[in-house]
């Protein structure tokens, strides 16, 4: 192997080491945020509180670092495979395939074991969402606008940390009339509040911007809470949806509490 190739491998190894150190730091911050929210859950109800937005940012950062780790790990594997001695084509292919499968298994086991308790505790609720309806962003990070729909969780893949979901609403003629399936990362999924667990339901005060299901549709849009302080967390919300003007006025629409979630940071509409 030439000197430049060795230099590249060493540099990629150093980058991978930095990525893993960054991952540990992010997981520590996530753990701190979880402890804060468990100790004082009422803080998210205060106007101007950004705890949930910060937590979303941290999980997005963790996702980006994980993807970078895969990229540099794959590059290193390719470079190290090039060091294997050449032999009969059949033997070499068999050896590489076996190593690849072993590495994949080790990679999965390593990813799960290296997760902090807070991250592991996050994966379990994700797996428990199977069969539930959730809010899902079906557009990519490079899209001009974020599109959110109500979908049903089919499966959560712990190895890739991705949801397999089904949009049960048939598409229009242009998009096809069948139901659509998506594979989405954790950051694109928001569980709805549960009707049978009112104590865990967030209470958004008047003036708070939220993401809510528009009446008689399965699409979610940004809206502002306009109802006075509700007596119970399970009371319906009175909302004004952005860009919903009718005859020069902004109609106020009633939305059930279990179809309203926190507005994701950086939402584009």
Automatic annotation (TrEMBL):
Is Nucleus tagged as a keyword? yes
User: Keywords assigned by UniProt?
Assistant: Chromatin regulator, Nucleus, Transcription, Transcription regulation
Q: Where in the cell is it found?
A: Nucleus
In residue numbers, the region (Disordered) covers 83-120
- Keyword Glycosyltransferase assigned: no
Q: Could you state one GO cellular component term attached to this entry?
A: SAGA complex
Q: Where is the composition biased (Basic and acidic residues)?
A: 94-112
- PROSITE patterns attached here? SGF29_C
GO biological process, any: response to salt stress
User: Which intervals hold domain SGF29 C-terminal?
Assistant: 124-269
Any idea what this protein is called?
A: SGF29 C-terminal domain-containing protein
């Amino acid at each position: 192997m030439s000197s430049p190739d060795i230099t590249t491998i060493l540099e990629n190894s150093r980058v991978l080491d930095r990525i893993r150190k960054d991952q540990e730091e992010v997981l520590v911050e996530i753990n701190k945020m979880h402890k804060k929210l468990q100790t004082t859950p009422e803080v998210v109800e205060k106007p101007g509180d950004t705890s949930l937005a910060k937590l979303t940012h941290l999980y997005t950062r963790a996702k980006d670092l994980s993807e970078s780790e895969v990229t540099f790990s794959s590059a290193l594997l390719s470079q190290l495979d090039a060091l294997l001695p050449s032999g009969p084509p059949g033997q070499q292919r068999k050896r590489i395939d076996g190593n690849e499968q072993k590495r994949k298994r080790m990679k999965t086991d390593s990813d799960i074991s290296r997760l902090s308790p807070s991250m592991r505790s996050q994966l379990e609720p994700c797996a428990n969402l199977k069969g539930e309806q959730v809010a899902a962003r079906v557009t990519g990070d490079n899209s001009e606008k974020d599109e959110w729909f109500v979908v049903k969780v089919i499966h959560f893949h712990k190895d890739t940390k991705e949801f397999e979901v089904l949009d049960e609403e048939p598409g229009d003629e242009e998009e096809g009339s069948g139901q659509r399936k998506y594979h989405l990362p954790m950051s694109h999924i928001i569980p709805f509040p549960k009707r049978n667990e009112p104590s865990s339901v967030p209470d958004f005060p008047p003036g708070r911007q939220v993401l809510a299901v528009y009446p008689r549709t399965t699409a979610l849009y940004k809206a502002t809470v306009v109802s006075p302080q509700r007596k119970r967390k399970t009371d319906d919300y009175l909302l004004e949806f952005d860009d919903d003007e009718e005859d020069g006025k902004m109609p106020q629409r009633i939305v059930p509490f279990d179809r309203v979630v926190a507005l994701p940071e950086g939402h584009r509409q």
